[in-house]
Design brief:
The structure is a homotetramer. The first copy, chain A, contains 4 helices and 10 strands; from the N terminus they run βββαβαβαβαββββ. The first copy, chain A, is an alpha/beta fold. Chains in contact: A-B, A-C, B-D, C-D. Chain A binds chain B through residues 33-34, 36-41, 43, 107, 113-116, 118-127, 129-131, 138-143, 157, and chain B through 33-34, 36-41, 43, 107, 113-116, 118-127, 129-131, 138-143, 157.
């Protein structure tokens, strides 16, 4: 039972630049996180892009969706910034029907010790192996179908729409 | 969809005693870990015991199984030392039929920064919400049915028997 | 032998805002860091301001210097952003003659696990108890007199001028 | 101004063995800690032994003292378990007269995130550059002369004898 992780950036992978004090992207920490979690599930990690989800264009979302479509595995995790995670989920759902696709992310960068990323990654790996085909968002220990989920920007949590 | 976590101790919750250099148990870190993971799934944590699984007696396993039996929720996570996790899973499986019960643990104490516990807890929370009724072990990003799992003590990982 | 720490902000104390992804200041972490270091030297921490040193005005530097002047202890540590640490040291040195004053800071926020702040704080506490009266910068395990120090912004390290 | 660090083990360098749950020694973390602290003071690290100070024999203490004696630098830090740190300091003081020698250690292993080791190492690097020749213990942000120091084993802190 093999799993693909597509990395797109987001808070998950933000780094601190000690020369100018800004946050930026370099390489993904996903492999390091899987190692830290002693993960032995058969997973391949591929980086599609490294960006803030707030800067994503329609083209970027198409790229993500078409990679999900072309992927020969039917269990896919997409790491993604939380701000537009729901929009990307919608684009994927319009295009990919016969796979279990989980979008997940973090509110705190992994490199900040107190990250929720390791927990969310664990949960996503649980959900991707067990949920029926469909597109889901996994955050805060919960899962949501793509069409019944929004980010509550006041409290920084995901919730059902209805 | 409510989840119960029964805490029994194990590496998960070991502390370092700075006066004598020994590892020991005090209180569980489960609530702290759920907070760190920004978990919003409806979870109640109850401590049944705080012990090394290598020291568990038949009576201890009966206590765990009967708490699973009496629990009015059908989604249960049991945190447990890895050494005898499979034995306890077997006792629970003999007694409890109509619930999804996930045993999980850690190879490294949570208080040691590099813990696999947060990752395993995330995965267990994913599995408990989605797997059919049964007794499972969730370690290393994978899940195993209770009767097809053993700990490989040479490499410190769980694996299928057949 | 009592020591005063004046907090002025800087990278030391930056926090990550998980709602908007920006870095910001809230309360100082100095007391938490002293506790983590099991520090038992008699130290009082007082916050003068919480700001990026790049935003400091002449008035801010006067505030810091006059607090050093009025302080009834002769061992003072000032936590400070690294960008204009040398300018503030010069202003203090022009005003305060009979005290040992150590400016220190960090390149990485303390809340990012991999901080140099705890190490620099330890070194500053060592230097403040042992160096003769004067104004010094303590960074990177070294100390510099205020008039023979600059920050090399290319490599992010402090160095002697001559 | 060059500094030598002699590593002898102690809590500083203890590791957690995830296969059997015991604490043990492998390689020193001193170079990693100096890197984390962005230390640029000219320091050489040499490992003399890796042991619990409670297991040290008279021969081990002689080895440490004679390495301090032979060392061609006059600024030396010795990392050491806290239980018998004072005994080793006494043996060194009987043998080495014209150097500044600082013994330091930790109450919590560095690999346990919440270590006091990084703070103590910073302080020791401060003291070794500034204290006059003599043998000292640096713990808890304070320094003690070798002949006026004891470990209070009830509270786990060092204190003056008189």
């Amino acid at each position: 039972m093999s799993i693909r992780i597509f990395v797109t950036g987001g808070t998950f992978d933000k780094e601190y630049n000690e020369l100018n004090g800004a946050l930026f992207f370099k390489d993904t920490h996903l492999n390091e996180m899987l190692k830290l979690g002693r993960c032995k599930a058969p997973i391949e990690v591929r980086t599609l892009m490294m960006m803030d989800s707030i800067d994503m264009t329609d083209d970027d979302r198409e790229t993500i969706a078409s990679n999900c479509l072309k992927c020969d595995l039917d269990k896919i995790i997409v790491t993604h910034g939380t701000d537009t995670m729901v929009e990307t989920a919608k684009v994927i759902a319009g295009k990919v029907k016969d796979k279990t696709i989980i979008l997940t992310g973090a509110m705190i960068p992994y490199k900040f010790g107190s990250s929720d990323g390791l927990f969310n990654l664990g949960a996503a790996i649980g959900f991707v192996q067990t949920l029926p085909h469909g597109v889901y968002i996994a955050m805060n220990g919960r899962f949501f179908t793509w069409d019944n989920c929004r980010k509550n920007k006041v409290i920084g949590e995901f919730e059902e729409i209805r």
